[in-house]
Amino acid sequence: MSLLEISDLHVHYRRRTGRLHALRGVDLSIGAGETVGVIGETGSGKSTLARAVLGLLPVSRGRIVIDGEDVTRFNQRQWRSFRRRGVVQYVFQDPLRSLDPDLTIEESLTEPLRLQGRRDSPNHLLERVRLDESLLTRLPAELSGGQRQRVAVARALAAEPRLILLDEPVSALDSANRVRVLELLKELRDAGTALLFISHDLGSVAGIADRIAVLHQGELVEDGPTRQVVTEPRHDYTKLLISSVPTLRKVVPA
Ligand SMILES: Nc1ncnc2c1ncn2[C@@H]1O[C@H](COP(=O)(O)OP(=O)(O)OP(=O)(O)O)[C@@H](O)[C@H]1O
Description:
Helices cover 36% and strands 26% of the residues. It starts with a strand and ends with a helix. Helix 6 (145-157) packs parallel to helix 7 (175-190). It has a single domain (33-57, 86-251), classed as Rossmann fold, CATH 3.40.50.300. The chain is α/β, with parallel strands linked by helices. The longest helix has 16 residues, at 175-190. The strands form two sheets. It has a six-stranded mixed sheet with strand order 6-7-8-3-9-10, with helices on both faces. The site of adenosine-5'-triphosphate has 13 residues, from strand 1, strand 2 and helix 1. One of its GO terms (molecular function) is ATP hydrolysis activity.
């Protein structure tokens, strides 16, 4: 059974000028321990997909099943109780959105542990993302962007999730920090956590994803094993994305 099963997903936004059909019949599944990269240009619907899966947007049609639970029509109370189970966690592009600016790093990391009924210190979480304990007393604003993103990953790990949604997790980072966070994500993948890695940058995703799905104007136009998508893309839009990253074949595992 899939850990995440999205079928025929449609999402609309209401705008002053009318309704926008942002996702048009998306089918996507992620198995336990699998890493799936979703790529697409700006406005293709990537963040909409992540937000719908997290219950932050209403679904017009289709079904979202997470770990056997149909969450499509959950109300807020059901979402709160489902989130507490900690099956799925998220990391956004801007870690300041995942971290409360008024809480120290220690408080930010202790909160999800308490929600899981745990009384232990958050030091082991910092260790997993290779940050020094001396950062515990700082506020998010007192960290570098790369350190903040690693704290956001540490916070997501507190609930020992089986699936982490990552929406452009390395886009705001400089290249050294990007490499560090990607290494960290590979370790999570290797430890068996399923990842849904959303990015406009095929180069970041290709080195880590088992499968790549391509979103184009709200439709999933391609979905296949990473090597196959990179070497034998079927859709013209995928071909275009691939031709824009000349070094791609080097980062794709054989
Ligand atoms: N809250 C909203 N209200 C109305 N339209 C929205 C809203 N959020 C997104 N959209 C529109 O929905 C479409 C998909 O947006 P989405 O943010 O999912 O794209 P994206 O692929 O994540 O883009 P980016 O890479 O720039 O973050 C776009 O046309 C966008 O303008």
